[in-house]
Amino acid sequence: MRISRRALLRLTLAGGIVAGGAVIFKQTEDVGFDKWLRWMARGQAARFAMGSRVALAGVPSYEADIRAAIRAIWRDAQGPDLRGARVVVKPNLVDFVAGRPCYTMPQVTGALIDFLRDEAGVRSVVAAEGVTFRRDPHAILIDTGYRDLLQQKDVEFVDLNYDDLVKIPLRGGYAKMDSLFMARTVVEADALISVPKLKTHHWTRISASLKNLFGIVPGAKYGFPKNTLHFHGIDAFVAELWDSLPTPNRFALVDGIVGSQGDGPLLGTPVASGVLIGGSDFLAVDATAARVMGFEPANIEILAFMAWAGLGQIDTHKIQLSGTPLDALRRDYEPAPQV
Amino acid sequence: MSRAPVFLRESQNADGGWGYKRGGMSFVEPTAAVMLALFRSKESDAQVQHARRFLTSLQHADGGWGVAAVDEESGWMTAWAMWALATAENEATARGQSWLLESVGIRVTDPKQVQGIQKVLKIDPRVTGWAWQPGDAAWVFPTALTLLALDALGVRDHPRAQEGIQYLLDRAIPSGGWNIGNPFMVSGTLPPTVECTALALMALHAFRVENASTGRARDYIAREDFTQTAFEWVWRALCWQKTGAPTKRAFDALARLESADGSFDGNVFTTALAVMAGLGQ
Question: Quick one: pLDDT at residue A234?
Fold first, then answer.
């Protein structure tokens, strides 16, 4: 039997498609082809979506007018309308290690609380955190200056490690978990504002608004340092948190006035970056934070994965920057040693 | 006289359990801690019985406990439940004991991985203890807590208990004390925490382990250069009470930190630990 050239070409093409499909199917067996296809399709669609807004503000020190900087960031990044909202402010209080800039400075959180109450018209605001390396936050609250700050501003602190538990469904499928317990305070809030420290991290390379979400997971269930979730893959789990978080309004405000380089998240050394970074797309905010630190976001696995899956933007042409030019704020952070 | 026992009695939920805060969801940990705290108080008998029924009702088919009624997965709080129910000697405690003994933290045996972990974290990952959750690595707090539960159950010579002791000794911080279980990070030593040091000392004391590590840990916990919080002091008080050291210094500090309602920081668990140490009794 003779096969025409056209038929041969068709057969080759069909064979190639089947072989390619088989390779993709095999490679995605772990997560499931349908999920992989859904993530990829959403990632491709994100290329044609509207870009994200991120605002930068140069703030030389913690004695500067931080509230004015937050006001400008909120305006430029088109922060959500929070009139009448119940807001959870989530700083990064991972721990206190003397001389190590591993936590969000209270001056930033305090200025944000003032802005939310006096200018954004929120109904209520609480500060909340679920610390990672200790079972009780009080020593950290004292040592970091948060106890005095919250007393002075009459703001309640909610320990998310011991809050009532609410089981939420996980819709992403990245972490191979169907559901997750979360603190009721976060689940029932109208808005969550992540206020992380700008720092390097020995597992995720950078730690900013997305990694800060680990603190909303209750330690009473997942332990200290919530390592169970690391076993599901930090990148996958952060993507899951971002994708499944029920809180309707979200905003990130990164404290990079003094950042942390080297052996983060705890033992880094200070870098005077003089910047606050804000926006509603946490991925775009963290990609911008990475650029401020002198890193390429596409080379940071957690950011690259979430961008591929369509969970936000990292490309410069899809992020509309405003405020202080990024080039004026860029520093070369020493990377964290990789564990 | 401390009002801490009164605060605990007045904080019981209708279901028989206690939350971490008054009126909060009942969890296994604070419930068990309050039961242990009020166990000797006759006026609390009915409440303790109610709590015992509540706790027993939360036991899963596999013998373990989740952290609260909404949690269907057995985990680290099984040790708290077993500590509180250890004297019952019934089928429920037998199943709980089996769950504890069969529960193992991740053990790394691949020589290359072992070498890598030893280089970075300076721990021996071939020795394991107990995890917070099934499938997780072992950590100091659940390991020490489980050893205390096994001691209460009279399980002392089991290989798992002996390995748990070795795990604690391996994770001790060279300068004294314990933290969550990482004595080192990449570029330096991580500091100890009072709660992990106190619990590890209590567990090792229960198994009559005394060596240079426990000596240094005792020195660390006796120091005053720490941030003065109720949580730090109740763990000191409990550790000193369980290991036969004088508790007066801790009780004096706690007297200054007790709230008008008898609580410490409004926290039921912290308050229960203080009463477990003997405060108000």
Answer: 86
